[in-house]
Amino acid sequence: MTSGASGQTANEPAVLVVGAGPTGLALALCLARSGIAVRLVDRAAQPATTSRAIGIQARTLELLDLFGLAEELVALGLRAVAGNIHAGSNRLVHLDLSRIRSRFPYILLLEQTETERILTEALARCGVSVERGVEVVGFKHDSSSVQVQLSKNGAAPTAASYDYMVGCDGAHSITRHGLAVGFTGKTLHQKFLLADLDVEWKLPDDQFHIFTSPEGLMAVFPMRQGHRLIAETREEPADSVSGRSLSQLETVTRRAAVKMKLSNLRWSSFFHVNSRLATKLRDGRVLLAGDAAHIHSPAGAQGMNTGIQDAINLGWKLAFVLRGDAAAELIDTYEIERYPVERGVLRNTEMLTRMVSLRASVLRRARDLIVPPVARTEFVQKMARNTISEIGISYRRARASALSGLADGDRIPDLEIEPDHEGRTRLYSVLDGVRFTLLVVSKNESGIMPGIAASIPDRIARVIFARRVLGDVPRDLSDWFCLIRPDAYIALQGPLTQAADAVDWLGALATK
């Protein structure tokens, strides 16, 4: 592999990705599929065997669908179509996730071990494997490269040079520490225990349930095998990794006004909740993504999803710059776009954690009175669905178009399109995650498509002609063009008479 703007020679890795969790794996996959030579290292000798993050949101599934992975994940996981917050025998909130405007109207509950396995296998099909037992022991960077000292299984360090380095190495990131980047925020007062076990009860197992009580919150998530239980605790075990025994866990079930029988404890642990955000995501040629950049409460199952979406936002931009198809300034937009998203995730997860963890009786009574009628309104239901599913994430730069109801920077819905001489198909089925797609919609081709297609190199964009578009748009669109980014957000759109602007827009990438 070669990289046009890179100082590397053929087949030498242009990018070092540090950390082989979901974020690092997704980033390496995006780069490899884009033709960029990438090296992925992880200090752990073996992949983790515990379940860890279990929730995959609709937007993450849409993005992984661009790489052909969503169907495999969905086939393995369990679909949670609703979420509930209970206070005693009263249900404060019922969030109907089946109304998410996506092909994936649910939270997919699947162990992180399986998510990582599927990403690892996809990466292997691109000829890239995870190098385990490899630790970054030092690095320095200048305007042209990153020089890294790497140690394998504790051996003497060896030196290597890369065009870019991305730290996806978790909350205790060596990359972030090496950059001396701040990690601002706080440790919340709550302490939590977590367990994977079996729960026998009468509540539906296609929904997740959060119980709030004066003793602290408790949550139960269904899994394909058993359940995940999370509960606030005031006592920290002597060994904070060991968690609790089954008999100790049974005491927290009294917080629910429903009988629960626990059995078959498979794994438990204990953790403090931190809510922290790196002060910046980039220092020259070194970048941060995933937990290396942000950590927060597990409320809403946002962490792994935010990391994967960091990776896919960054991956295509690095690839375009390294191939010489975009100026280096394109990478600046990674922090511009993702930092507000990450800040919003911290804000929302802190707010949700505090709301369900209230201890003061007067505050609890006020919450229990106010929340139910407000939570039932369509406005709040829609806002909550879009937030938790992450389909509401937008990099909007202007007002919505009167023609489409969408704005540049918005997520492009998975529209139904009707290509010429073909049956209807989903838009996302023709996107590939590594190139732009220029969607040209017109009932009459009128010679415009061949001229535009001939002026755009195939490695940069694919041109799709459709006679009409149906789906999640205000009206049946015609005589419209939409330039779609590799990560399925709108770059540019407008009436068909201005379709040549898309060619100019792509050309300007290399000169900005």
Termini distance? 25 Å
Regions with little confidence, pLDDT below 50 for 5+ residues: 1-10, 238-243
Strand order of the largest sheet: 6-5-14-15-16-13-17-20
Strand content: 25-35%
The tally of helices reads 12
Largest sheet data: 8 strands, mixed
Helical fraction equals 25-40%
Please tell me the overall pLDDT: 88
Number of strands: 26
Cα Rg: 24 Å
Which structural class matches the secondary elements?
alpha+beta
Overall geometry comes to globular
**Quaternary state, please?**
single chain
What would your notes on this structure say?
- The protein is α+β, with helices and mostly antiparallel strands and 512 residues long.
- It is built from twelve helices and 26 strands.
- The strands form five sheets. Strands 6-5-14-15-16-13-17-20 form an eight-stranded mixed β-sheet. A six-stranded mixed β-sheet has the order 8-2-1-12-19-18. It has a six-stranded mixed β-sheet with strand order 22-21-24-23-25-26, covered by helices on one side.
- Helix 1 runs parallel beside helix 4 (112-125), helix 1 (22-33) packs parallel to helix 7 (303-323) and helix 7 (303-323) packs antiparallel against helix 8 (332-356).
- It is globular, with a radius of gyration of 24 Å.
- It starts with 14 loop residues before the first strand and ends with a helix.
- Mean pLDDT is 88; it is low at 1-10 and 238-243.
